[in-house]
Specification:
The protein is built from eight helices and no strands. The protein is an all-alpha fold.
Protein backbone atom coordinates (compact mmCIF):
# COMPACT_ATOMS: atom_id res chain seq x y z
CA UNK A 1 0.00 0.00 0.00
CA UNK A 2 1.39 3.38 -1.02
CA UNK A 3 1.02 6.65 0.83
CA UNK A 4 -0.95 9.39 -0.86
CA UNK A 5 1.41 11.15 -3.26
CA UNK A 6 2.73 14.64 -2.98
CA UNK A 7 2.50 15.21 -6.74
CA UNK A 8 1.38 13.23 -9.76
CA UNK A 9 1.59 13.97 -13.48
CA UNK A 10 -1.49 14.55 -15.58
CA UNK A 11 -0.87 11.17 -17.25
CA UNK A 12 -0.73 9.37 -13.89
CA UNK A 13 -3.89 11.11 -12.74
CA UNK A 14 -5.63 10.40 -16.06
CA UNK A 15 -5.01 6.70 -15.45
CA UNK A 16 -6.44 6.90 -11.92
CA UNK A 17 -9.50 8.90 -13.05
CA UNK A 18 -9.98 7.07 -16.40
CA UNK A 19 -9.45 10.10 -18.62
CA UNK A 20 -7.84 13.44 -19.11
CA UNK A 21 -10.44 15.90 -17.89
CA UNK A 22 -10.37 19.40 -16.43
CA UNK A 23 -10.32 17.75 -12.99
CA UNK A 24 -7.14 15.87 -13.90
CA UNK A 25 -5.50 19.00 -15.35
CA UNK A 26 -6.18 20.99 -12.17
CA UNK A 27 -5.10 18.15 -9.88
CA UNK A 28 -1.79 17.82 -11.76
CA UNK A 29 -0.99 21.38 -10.67
CA UNK A 30 -1.43 20.52 -6.98
CA UNK A 31 1.26 19.39 -4.60
CA UNK A 32 -1.14 16.89 -2.98
CA UNK A 33 -3.61 16.10 -5.79
CA UNK A 34 -5.50 13.23 -4.18
CA UNK A 35 -5.59 14.97 -0.83
CA UNK A 36 -7.07 18.11 -2.35
CA UNK A 37 -9.42 16.43 -4.83
CA UNK A 38 -12.63 17.43 -3.03
CA UNK A 39 -11.49 21.06 -2.95
CA UNK A 40 -10.71 20.97 -6.68
CA UNK A 41 -14.08 19.37 -7.44
CA UNK A 42 -15.72 22.36 -5.75
CA UNK A 43 -13.88 24.69 -8.13
CA UNK A 44 -15.20 22.94 -11.24
CA UNK A 45 -18.31 23.92 -13.13
CA UNK A 46 -21.10 21.36 -13.12
CA UNK A 47 -20.28 20.57 -16.74
CA UNK A 48 -16.67 19.82 -15.77
CA UNK A 49 -17.88 17.67 -12.86
CA UNK A 50 -20.13 15.70 -15.23
CA UNK A 51 -17.21 15.32 -17.65
CA UNK A 52 -15.12 13.75 -14.86
CA UNK A 53 -17.91 11.29 -14.06
CA UNK A 54 -18.56 10.48 -17.72
CA UNK A 55 -14.88 9.62 -18.27
CA UNK A 56 -15.35 6.66 -15.92
CA UNK A 57 -16.57 3.43 -17.58
CA UNK A 58 -20.11 2.27 -16.97
CA UNK A 59 -20.59 -0.58 -14.51
CA UNK A 60 -20.95 -3.80 -16.48
CA UNK A 61 -19.68 -2.27 -19.73
CA UNK A 62 -18.06 -4.67 -22.15
CA UNK A 63 -14.94 -2.69 -23.15
CA UNK A 64 -13.06 -1.86 -19.97
CA UNK A 65 -9.48 -1.10 -19.05
CA UNK A 66 -7.55 -3.96 -17.42
CA UNK A 67 -7.72 -2.14 -14.09
CA UNK A 68 -11.48 -1.60 -14.27
CA UNK A 69 -12.07 -5.19 -15.37
CA UNK A 70 -10.14 -6.42 -12.34
CA UNK A 71 -12.07 -4.08 -10.03
CA UNK A 72 -15.43 -5.10 -11.43
CA UNK A 73 -14.40 -8.76 -11.67
CA UNK A 74 -16.52 -9.58 -14.67
CA UNK A 75 -18.54 -12.74 -14.62
CA UNK A 76 -22.05 -12.41 -13.41
CA UNK A 77 -25.38 -13.85 -14.39
CA UNK A 78 -26.49 -12.50 -17.80
CA UNK A 79 -29.80 -11.27 -16.32
CA UNK A 80 -27.92 -9.17 -13.76
CA UNK A 81 -25.70 -7.72 -16.49
CA UNK A 82 -28.75 -6.93 -18.62
CA UNK A 83 -30.44 -5.19 -15.69
CA UNK A 84 -27.24 -3.23 -14.91
CA UNK A 85 -27.01 -2.08 -18.52
CA UNK A 86 -30.66 -1.02 -18.52
CA UNK A 87 -30.49 0.80 -15.16
CA UNK A 88 -27.22 2.51 -16.14
CA UNK A 89 -29.09 3.93 -19.13
CA UNK A 90 -32.03 4.99 -16.95
CA UNK A 91 -29.60 6.60 -14.50
CA UNK A 92 -27.82 8.58 -17.22
CA UNK A 93 -31.13 9.71 -18.73
CA UNK A 94 -32.43 10.70 -15.28
CA UNK A 95 -29.38 12.54 -13.96
CA UNK A 96 -27.42 13.50 -17.07
CA UNK A 97 -24.16 11.82 -16.06
CA UNK A 98 -22.68 8.37 -15.53
CA UNK A 99 -23.35 6.23 -12.45
CA UNK A 100 -20.08 5.89 -10.52
CA UNK A 101 -19.69 3.65 -7.50
CA UNK A 102 -16.64 2.24 -5.73
CA UNK A 103 -16.88 -1.43 -6.74
CA UNK A 104 -13.55 -3.15 -6.08
CA UNK A 105 -14.73 -6.72 -6.05
CA UNK A 106 -18.28 -6.31 -4.76
CA UNK A 107 -20.63 -8.68 -6.61
CA UNK A 108 -22.75 -7.22 -9.38
CA UNK A 109 -26.07 -8.05 -7.64
CA UNK A 110 -24.93 -5.80 -4.77
CA UNK A 111 -24.02 -3.03 -7.23
CA UNK A 112 -27.40 -3.46 -8.90
CA UNK A 113 -29.11 -2.92 -5.53
CA UNK A 114 -27.05 0.24 -4.91
CA UNK A 115 -27.92 1.55 -8.36
CA UNK A 116 -31.62 0.96 -7.75
CA UNK A 117 -31.42 2.84 -4.43
CA UNK A 118 -29.51 5.74 -5.92
CA UNK A 119 -32.10 6.19 -8.66
CA UNK A 120 -34.46 7.32 -5.88
CA UNK A 121 -32.25 10.26 -4.89
CA UNK A 122 -32.07 13.84 -6.11
CA UNK A 123 -29.79 14.93 -8.92
CA UNK A 124 -27.76 17.09 -6.52
CA UNK A 125 -27.29 14.18 -4.10
CA UNK A 126 -26.20 11.94 -6.95
CA UNK A 127 -23.74 14.42 -8.41
CA UNK A 128 -22.10 14.82 -4.97
CA UNK A 129 -22.12 11.07 -4.31
CA UNK A 130 -20.74 10.20 -7.74
CA UNK A 131 -17.87 12.66 -7.33
CA UNK A 132 -17.02 11.32 -3.86
CA UNK A 133 -17.02 7.79 -5.25
CA UNK A 134 -14.79 8.87 -8.15
CA UNK A 135 -12.20 10.26 -5.73
CA UNK A 136 -12.42 7.15 -3.52
CA UNK A 137 -11.73 4.97 -6.57
CA UNK A 138 -8.71 7.06 -7.59
CA UNK A 139 -7.28 7.02 -4.06
CA UNK A 140 -7.74 3.27 -3.80
CA UNK A 141 -6.11 2.73 -7.18
CA UNK A 142 -3.09 4.78 -6.12
CA UNK A 143 -2.73 3.10 -2.74
CA UNK A 144 -3.14 -0.43 -4.09
CA UNK A 145 -1.74 0.17 -7.57
Amino acid sequence: MRDLPRQLTADELAELFEGRTRLVELLAQREDPLGSAEEVLGELTEQEQRQALDAHPAIGARALSKRTTAEQRAGSHPAVLTELTYLNQVYEETFGFRFVVFVDGRPKPEILEILQQRLERTRKEELETGLRELVAIARDRWQNG
